[in-house]
């Protein structure tokens, strides 16, 4: 085989590998398309991501101060603003994100299942349409451009309120939900400028890159500083964190840092201070029944 034929064979092989990687991404799985650096925490490892990657349930993302990113799945586009902290969760019957802080814009065209967004003060389910959300630990605000969504308070998850297009909703922790037809001036002023434009898919650009970065190759163990905001987050995804990050608490400094913060991390108390083991019960051997039969 001459050099030209070998080069052509290598190109064909690489194209097939990229195509296989593209189709290996399961239906509904998000693809992260970063603009700038994104910090990814997968399992207990931290990665710096600057190229497209297929996300997994439980992935925690932090967008850099000067960065942005876009998530894409089948029929769903989510734009992420700078300084945004978000997690990919798994919800029965649909996709789900947990927004700890920052700005996102969602465009959803398929209505097979609701797309849910969990925030510290408000739970949102969007079947189809376009919406912009901002969240912090103490407040959530959103504007629904088109479509319809269902809202619920975390402490009253069974009480739902419907919201139609061109409506604004906001809620501070401990206060009732406020709904109006016009966004607050602070919401408009703080919204990232690119969110004023319609979202467009760019996933096709990442088709070949996904073969390179389906799984990050280099990372470091997560530290307490990486996780503390998530460990104390008033979000449903927090319930999985003790089991997930328990291996980190087997040694210092993570263990001692958790111990110093047990007041805000009560769910970790059983990890650091497990109850004493129950004493083993001694087996009771029944006394041998004595025969009362008289030999004749």
UniProtKB/TrEMBL annotation:
It holds the Pfam family FecR. Residues 62-148 form the FecR protein domain. It comes from the Bacteria. InterPro entries: FecR. This is FecR protein. It comes from Caballeronia arvi. The lineage of its organism: Bacteria, Pseudomonadati, Pseudomonadota, Betaproteobacteria, Burkholderiales.
